[in-house]
Amino acid sequence: MASGYLEEYGAGEEQRGNLIRNSILIGLGVIIAALFLWFLFRYYHETTLTKHFLNALKAKDYTAAYTAWGCTSTHTCADYTMAKFMEDWGPQSKGAANQTLKITDTERCGNGVIVSVDVAPGREDKLFVEKGSDALSFSPVATCPGKGPWTIMLHRTLGRVRTILY
After folding, report:
1. pTM
2. At CB < 8 A and 24+ separation, what contacts does 108-115 make?
3. For 126-165, how does the pLDDT look when each residue is reduced to its tens digit (9 = 90+)?
4. What are phi and psi of 137, to 5 degrees?
5. What's the average model confidence in pLDDT over 37-42?
6. 117/55 Cα distance (integer angstroms)
7. Which residues pair with 117 in a beta bridge?
């Protein structure tokens, strides 16, 4: 009779230990998955704006593309006229005959995101999407200055995973 009483001694402790261990593992898994998804989709808005611009160019709707660039009747771009825009992106621009217009990379820089666009074979443009105003422009720099070696390494390795979304 005493052996039956002691057989269940500690069984609750083992179940509680398993429950705690499983809860911690599930919590860590959820955190890692959330961080991975955040890393993949953190430039989604800027990428979508750039895709809208590129789709307008593919459809040869240059007025819509110029509007997506951020130049409208209420917000005119004195520095970047429609004629200059057509010179850069229109049917007479460099590589216009065989345009690919594909996003290849994104990188956060200051108050915006640098979006690399493969325009045509031999032509890659770096566009800058400013956060807040969502205005597109040519990037003033090819890569964001002041990045440390670890940031550059992470961008070159894990950052390439985002290319599946483009």
Report:
1. 0.75
2. 108/42, 108/43, 108/144, 109/139, 109/141, 109/144, 110/144, 112/46, 113/43, 113/46, 114/139, 114/141, 114/143, 114/144, 115/43, 115/46, 115/47, 115/50
3. 999 988 888 899 998 888 888 888 887 877 777 667 666 6
4. -160, 170
5. 85
6. 12
7. 103, 125
